[in-house]
Amino acid sequence: MFFAWFRRCAVGTILVACGCIxxxxxxxxxxKPNVDxxxxxxxxxxxxxATEARLVAEWSALSGNRDTARQTGRHKEIAYMLTNMRxxxxxxxxxIMGKPDTAPQxxxxxxxxxxxxxxxxxxxxxxxxxxxxxxxxxxxCAASLLGTIREPKALxxxxxxxxxPDRRIRFSAQLGLxxxxxxxxxxxxxxxxxxAEASPEEKTQIVLLVLKDAGPTDLPLLADALLMPTMDxxxxxxxxxxxxxxxxxxxxxxxxxxxxxxxxxxxxETVDAALAVIAExxxxxxxxxxxxxx
Length: 294
Fold this sequence. Notes:
Elements: H1 2-9, E1 34-38, E2 45-46, H2 48-62, H3 66-72, H4 74-85, H5 91-98, H6 104-114, H7 123-129, H8 136-146, H9 152-161, H10 167-179, H11 183-191, H12 200-211, H13 219-226, H14 233-246, H15 252-262, H16 265-281
Antiparallel strand pairs: 1-2
């Protein structure tokens, strides 16, 4: 559903902590043959441990061919398969992300891979990355992934990072807290949308957060987002749907102008439907035009 998409869209990078010990002893990979898994060579049955190693090696290879992987979604499929085997099976990918010489693009790729499949077993490894001695990008991405884990220990790490001197780390931690129901933090993050230093990527994350429970006070933010050329058209469609539900006359101009920016028939039809709903619900001072803005 929407929260799942929100987790998928989360941007950032991660970590690693050497020798982090989870709160419970990790489940060891079984060395018994798995008849449901076959090796690439000869079709022989694999042990679960061999399957894990093969999948991690495949993910590592995909990290060097990221565009192709994103077209197929195989990197996310691998993360899903590993997590289903045992949560600790993702540790090698987390460890790859934490190496000092790992490229930032690969760290982002790791977050894309794992953001939907994080588990409580990952909290300690991710939390250790928030240590100030680690790479700033890795720390911000660890905070981003911790924001996807609904556990008190994850919230504890996020609260500690919410006041970090680095803006990227603060934003990732505050966004995670807001997404887990901290109303005060939700309003604080929403206010960041209007800040000059907010990047297009951060604004996208803010919109995704706001759309989860948008209300009348969010109308100016959502109306402004519609007019951003960098905002994804699919996300704009979600904004339009939300404005049709809660909007009033103040959003009509942005809705109409956005049709010229997106310039897609399906989008224009969605805008027209939203305008019609608003017109029925609200007594507007002027007639709403469903024509594209000049």
